[in-house]
Specification:
three-stranded antiparallel beta sheet, two-stranded antiparallel ribbon, 99 residues, alpha+beta, single chain
Length: 99
């Protein structure tokens, strides 16, 4: 999971927006985009909404998370969304983390 920023035209103005992207690797080794969202920033509220939408669409069986450890991702507490645990058992870091 990561984000990239770009300019979006809104009326007569251009505004910077974040494209939040969550990719996954299937059991057969193929990669696919699981979800993407255009947001105002990488704030935890936007990441939380994306994580919840993935779960609502049936994503489960998350075994590993790789991210740049952005504070918005950490604060969104992706582990609780997918593992439904009261306490975080791992961390989201810039290296792979087995859940």
């Amino acid at each position: 999971m990561d984000a990239t920023y770009f300019k979006v035209r809104q009326g007569a103005q251009y505004k910077t927006r974040a494209l939040l992207i969550v990719a996954g690797i299937r059991e057969d080794g193929l990669r696919e985009i699981l979800g993407a969202s255009i947001a105002e920033s990488e704030d935890s509220g936007f990441w939380s909404a994306l994580f919840r939408s993935l779960k609502d669409r049936g994503l489960d069986g998350v075994e590993m998370v790789i991210s740049d450890a952005h504070k918005g991702i950490q604060k969104a507490n992706m582990l609780k969304v997918f593992l439904e645990v009261a306490e975080e058992g791992g961390c989201i870091a810039s290296s792979p983390v087995r859940l």
